[in-house]
Specification:
single chain, 201 residues, alpha+beta, seven-stranded mixed beta sheet, 4 helices, 20% helix, 30% strand, globular
Length: 201
Amino acid sequence: MTELELEPGFYFLPKGMLPSVVVCLEMTERPAPREVPAPEGVNLRHVERPELDWYRALFGKVGEPWLWYGRRLLSDEQLAAVIHDPLVEVRAVELDGSPEGLLELDFRKPGEVELVYFGLTDALIGSRAGRWLMEQAITLAFRQPIRRFWVHTCNYDHRSALDFYRRSGFVPYRFALDLDPDPRLTGHLPMDAAPQAPVIP
């Protein structure tokens, strides 16, 4: 990552680039456990060494409305190197056997855990499955001593995401700017993905 040194001001970006304003959050101790039952028919399944096509399908199903594209930029070899690493845990949220959510935790850096991906499809949004899933994520992250559990969200995420993370016990600690070619213009996402983010060719 590069730390920018910019003067205060208003900046035009090159056309075709997609800026994301990112908020980084962390929790340094496990909050008091909450009793949050799973919605009826919902379970969390640990998927060891996920098949690449299966993972990409679920990643797209959950993340396309929110402009998740990072994993789409990876080759088969690059993707396998991440999600097949024994210190990266991929879990599917299933509703009556159908995958409708993704939880991905990265334990590769000693002493900390990154909540890499956390999301549900429309089939579960608003069902309290998010609160239940976060409780599972916190329990999994703190099952061994760590210094911090962290996550980042951005302005293209669900409008309630930042408040949800804060209510869950995460504390904002830094802003960042992510600047990449718009994945809809590069063909990595369909042009109608994430209509909340205008496409500017």
